[in-house]
Amino acid sequence: MRGTLARRFVRHKSTAAAHFTGLNPSRLLQGAKPLIQPHDLRPVGLLDQLHKKPVEATFDGLGVELPNIDLRQDLSPEDIEVIKKASDDAGGIVVMTNQSEDMTMHDHVRFGQQMADSDSTVIEPHSVAAGHPDAPEVLEIVREANANVVFGENWHSDNSFHDRTCSYSILRGFVVPRLGVNDTLFSSVEAAYDALSPTMQDLLLDLNAYHSANRAYGAGHPGNSRAAMEGTGTMQLRQKPSGILDQDVLQPVISVHPRTGRRGIFVSPTFTTHIDGMRPEESIALLRFLYEHIARPEFCTRVSWQPNQVVMWDNRSLSHKGLADDVSELRIVQRVSIRGAAPVNHRGQAFSLTHTRKAAAASLFDWEEAARQANGVAKAKA
To answer: What DSSP designation does 262 have?
Structure first.
């Protein structure tokens, strides 16, 4: 399986390498290289919150570092397209190192606005968490030292609970840990889809699943994202949260990327509640398979944080999660999110604008808890 994946991505990466090294004269691509992977500096034995197995990531070819982009400068529409094309060619991750210490939050927002303008869309402030007081477009994510619950610690795609989901997330390291710890873990959901058998692909293509903001941000669960926010002492809920907590939206299980046409698995343990039209026990079994499949090492890479670094990723190509392998380290990152379009399936159909339901309860995907819920539903119907 790993060899098959490698062959698929060698063709893809060879195109990217040619693009980076001479076919496009853009100064932005000068010095492009693979992501730094400080394997020797990473603690061993960290268990994945999802399946309780050690975290592994062996897809070192995923992503690209572009050290020659200065986000203090205005970028032309042509420059923005170069960056987006680099993201497409690298599987969706662009790490912009060597940012100036003089870069401001407003520089960050300006770059986000340029990305949004290129797609005739907008920056999407977080619908539940309060924005930064100096720039409401910015979500400041704080991981306190020795926190018991960590924000974003399970797999997800940003804002998948919106009818128009997040295209690009742009994350700036404000206070970063020492190199090699508390990385961001990414999975290529496109590579994960490609690795499925044709029979499984056919089964998934016309399935849809509900995504819920309230599941992660609703009150009453000690381990969800809301609990993590409340545990920081600095992250706050918006004074008037939008109605996003009141209803869940329907999304394709397999979505199609609007720029590349690639297919990817679009479910997550953070926001997905169930597969539409399935019995609870069927939905749980299939979702569990997909979540564990996405987390396989051959689809994953780690982005290590360095000072003066900005990471942009494409939520339509990737799932991600924050790692907490040294909880003594404080980490503060600042995120700008770009509104995308309603996800579509292989038929070009979108459902999130028309299919909603009452929000699911606050929760956290746990296999034993999910199985108990499914058994309870089954017994109630018996």
So the answer is: -
Q: Which two tokens stand for residue 248?
A: 């869940």
Residue 255 is which amino acid?
S
Please state which of the ranges 114-123, 181-190, 210-219 shows the lowest mean pLDDT. 210-219
CATH number, domain with residue 283: 3.60.130.10
Q: How many domains does the chain have?
A: 1
Range 160-180 average pLDDT = 96
Alpha carbon of 376 to those of 218, 313, 331, 365, 372: distances in Å?
Answer: 22, 39, 40, 16, 6
Q: How far apart are CA 306 and CA 81, in angstroms?
A: 25
CB 230 within 8 A of CB 41: no
CB 244 within 8 A of CB 208: no
Q: What is the pTM of this model?
A: 0.89
Structure tokens at 346: 């292989």
| H helix or E strand, kind and range, residue 173 | strand 166-175
What's at 154, amino acid-wise? N
Question: What's the rounded mean pLDDT across residues 67-89?
Answer: 96
The rounded distance, in Å, linking the Cα atoms of 80 and 270 is 31
Identify the domain containing residue 236 by its residue range: 2-381
3 state DSSP class of 340: coil
Q: Which tokens is 271 given? A: 């926001």
